[in-house]
Amino acid sequence: MLPQSRLAIYFTITFSLLWTPQIWIFCLDWCIIDLKECLKSGWWRGFNAIFARYGKVFKAHLFCTPTVVSCDQELNQFILQNEEKLFQCSYPKPIHGILGKSSMIVVVGDTHKRLRNLALTLVTTTKSKPSYLYDMESIAIHVLNSWKDKSIVFFCEEAKKFTFSVIVKQVLGLSPDEPQTSKILEDFLTFMKGFISFPFYIPGTSYAKAVKARAKISFTVKSIMEARRRKHGEDSAKQQQKGDHFLDVLLSLTNLSEDEKVSFVLDSLFGGYETTSVLMSMAVFFLGQSPLALQQLKQEHEEIKAKRNKDEYYLSLEDYKQMEFTQNVINEALRCGNIVKFVHRKALKDVTFQGHLIPAGWKVLPVFSAVHLDSSLHDNALEFHPWRWEKQGQMTCKKFTPFGGGPRICPGFELAKVETAVFLHHLVLNFRWKQEGEDCPIAHPYVEFPRALPLEIEPIPMESSF
Fold first, then answer.
1. Which residues contact 287 (CB under 8 A, 6 or more apart)?
2. DSSP assigned state of 320
3. What is the largest CA-CA distance in the chain?
4. In terms of CB atoms within 10 Å, which end of the chain has fewer, N or C?
5. Omega within 30 of 0 (cis) for the link into 176
6. Can you give the residue range of the structural domain that contains 273?
7. What residues form the membrane-spanning segments (predicted)?
């Protein structure tokens, strides 16, 4: 079973009691929900009580805006598949301020299409590099080697070191020990602390520090881009031909402004750093509470290692394709962990769904976590059970949207899964671990562990894969 405190999320919302065939009706019933109260009777049972009263789709007043909150699988899919037709991305203005107006996360229309195509180019360029897995695996080995003389590690911090080093290498071509990497990471940590802070620009506040940190990162990225231009010259065509790194491709583009290029780099760092590190932490957290799953995972990776020739030191793509149970573990960690709980959309026009009207201009929140933990869609929904994925179409399953869906689905989701699988490969072959003390993930709004998931670790003798 999922530890109840793991899913502690807090909302203050105004509910409507009625969803009529004509329009969502405003009511004078104000409901303040502290989900700590839900935890007393079980988190999902508490939510079921809410659904029994309000339904899986209800009206709220969030972000100073009338809002339709959808915990319904069919409506969520309808919203995601009608992006830019009936609905449009609509994040609160403070998010624009901290991410930048050119961020792929907040832009819409043709601008988003151009940036998304660029993101797909990054994924393709990364996966096509001969050193793709080698770079990733080398960084994983470097991180795990640093554990050799330790008895306790804070896994969230270690995961972030790994994912940040990987994405900086992929996007900017920097190795973990370069001074610019440390500088970007320092500023990025400040940026993340203010990402969800109170959105008023007052000197000294987390929000103000985050805005300044973003400016510092932008300056560092621009200096790296200028250095790359000087190295390869101003002939963009020549750059694209001879550059084997994504940054060369980015600099060769003429349909993006300088600010859009910098924002894209920041978006890539944000997506590759935060989401993947949380996924890794959730997988390790759940595996620590599921001995059978951990045993089967370790067996799978021992078999993969045994099949390799003695002179084959690193993993191959064929090895990755054999990690079937690993993929089940990752998918189940995504379902239970709910790294992305919901997304922000607004109705572009009056929208009718199953005979009901969502007024134009209203905010719409498709809540993925509610669908992932819906007992009517998943057997034993509150259990971490990787075997449930053995006979299911994994990423095409409509009741499973950990990376969003539709035209705005995360373009780097496969890279996140590869990184997690590679790290787990070396982790289970080289270490035993158990959680040191109580530490459960909470979400406000992104998922984090209050104590950074401390683990007591023990090297496995004679099993080393590095």
1. 293, 294, 297, 329
2. H
3. 72
4. N
5. no
6. 4-459
7. 7-26
Helix and strand element counts for the chain (H, E): 18, 14
Is 440 annotated in a binding site? The answer is no
Residue 281, domain CATH: 1.10.630.10
Locate 36 and state its tokens: 């700590």
- Report the C-alpha gap between 245 and 222 in whole angstroms: 16
Report the chain's C-alpha Rg in angstroms. 23
3-state secondary structure of 83: strand
Q: Which of 345, 344, 350, 319 minimizes the C-alpha distance to 429?
A: 319
Domain membership of residue 39 (yes or no) is: yes
Split into its structural domains, the chain has a count of 1
- The position carrying tokens 């993340």 is 192
What residues are paired with 448 via a beta bridge?
442
Its pTM stands at 0.87
2, 34, 361, 84: CA torsion to nearest 10: -20
Helix intervals (H) in 206-254: 206-232, 236-242, 246-252
Q: How far apart are CA 191 and CA 274, in angstroms?
A: 12
Q: Which of 412, 446, 423 is nearest to 329 (CA)?
A: 423
Give yes or no for a contact between 166 and 135, defined as CB atoms under 8 angstroms apart.
Answer: yes
Q: What is the pLDDT of residues 226-284, one digit of tens each?
A: 998 888 765 544 544 445 578 888 888 888 888 889 999 999 988 888 899 999 999 99
Name the β-bridge partners of 443.
447
Amino acid at 288: G
Nearest-CA neighbor of 91 among 15, 165, 196?
A: 196
Question: 166 to each of 118, 158, 178, 427, how far by Cα in Å?
Answer: 19, 12, 13, 17
464 in a domain, yes or no? no
Residue 444 lies in a domain: yes
> Which helix (H) or strand (E) segment is 43 a member of?
helix 43-54
Residues 6+ apart with CB under 8 A from 384: 2, 286, 289, 290, 293, 332, 333, 336
- The amino acid sitting at 138 is S
- How many CB atoms are located within 10 Å of the residue 378 CB? 18
Asked, for residue 465, whether it belongs to a domain, the answer is no
Around Cβ 117, how many Cβ atoms within 10 Å? 11
Give CA–CA dist 256/263, Å, rounded.
11
Is 64 in contact with 328 (CB distance < 8 Å)? Answer: no
